[in-house]
Amino acid sequence: MSTEIQKTGLQKFNSMLENTRTQDYLSSVLGSKRDTFVSNMVALVSSNKLLSECDPSTIMFSCLKATALSLPLDANLGFCYVIPYNDRKSGKQVATFQIGKSGFVQLALRSGQFETLNVRDVREGEIIDEDFLSGEYKFKRLNEDREKAKIVGYVAYFRLTNGFHKQLYMTCEELDAHGSKYSQTKRKGFGLWVDNKESMYEKTCIKRLLSKYAPLSVEMNQAILSDQGVLGENDQIRYVDNEETAIDLEKAAEVADKFADFEEVTGEKEKVDKKTGEILGDKK
Asked: Domain range spanning residue 81?
């Protein structure tokens, strides 16, 4: 991407921030924290060439959601991300909001209802039984040469303070099929599903467990609904990897579990798949 195009993107973003309506809106939402929020958002956009070309409002609402959930946007921490994506429906580059595995864990523990929450790999030979009625598995950790054994799946588990507990086991084949169904970049052979698939396996497993069986706090419910969406004013959410139109928060609950795991775009050069409209990073 050329420097001229990058400056154009930043100029559009700065123009939005200088708009009186934007300033008034941020003041009403953030109060005295507005200036710090704006500074952090500008730093985020300035450091990402692809993000600087996105519709400025989608960046702002993604950052506001991170602030509302009290999750830092530092990619190194893995709590949440603002991801650039090309929206074929609007013909614009937009920012999507994505919760990381650590973000889901943080929100669950913050509720005070969880005694234990964990997700981990399962090696060949560690599954010893399956309960016919509950469908839950029994595991036994390999004591020797565990790291040499093949990973066959991932299991997420939680126990609540009231004693209720639940697990969800998914094989690597099931996780790969899930990623191929919902991730365009995985089908193209790059992105987090390829470069950091273990992290995506863990996130998918723990998100599905929490969304299906855990008591959801207001924050957790917002996180699950907002994950992988393009966010807008009045809690609008659109899932651009699917041809659904914008939906409000009440209707989002019906489809939230269908859409999963956008992955972070990597690379410096912008490439767009002409068939899917997706922004592609450089293959490494």
From this structure: 3-280
The phi, psi pair for 202, rounded to 5°, reads: -65, -45
**Strand-pair partners of 213:** none
Q: Dihedral of CA 156/172/95/89: which sign?
A: negative
Query: Quick count: other Cβ atoms within 10 Å of Cβ 258?
Result: 11
Cα–Cα distance measured from residue 5 to residue 82, given in angstroms and rounded to the nearest whole number: 20
Q: How many other CB atoms are found less than 10 A from the CB of residue 186?
A: 21
State residue 256 phi and psi, 5-degree precision: -60, -40
Supply angle C-alpha 61, 119, 262, rounded to 5.
Answer: 35
pTM of the model: 0.73
Record the tokens describing residue 278, joined without a space: 């997706």
CA distance linking residue 258 with residue 56, whole number of Å: 27
Identity (one letter) of the amino acid at 21?
R
d(CA 102, CA 96): 18
Residues forming a β-bridge with 171: 153
Residue range 20-61, pLDDT digits in tens: 999 999 999 999 999 999 999 998 998 888 888 899 999 999
81 Cβ partners below 8 Å, 6+ apart?
73, 75, 97, 98, 100, 264
Strand partners, 247: 237
Cα–Cα distance for residue pair 216/120, rounded to 1 Å: 22
Total domains in the chain come to 1
CA distance 68 to 62: 10
Residue 135 gets the label, from left (phi > 0), alpha (psi -120 to 50) or beta, of left
Cα–Cα nearest to 37, from 68, 7, 15, 8: 68
The torsion angle over the Cα atoms of residues 82, 53, 232 and 184, rounded to 10 degrees, is: -60
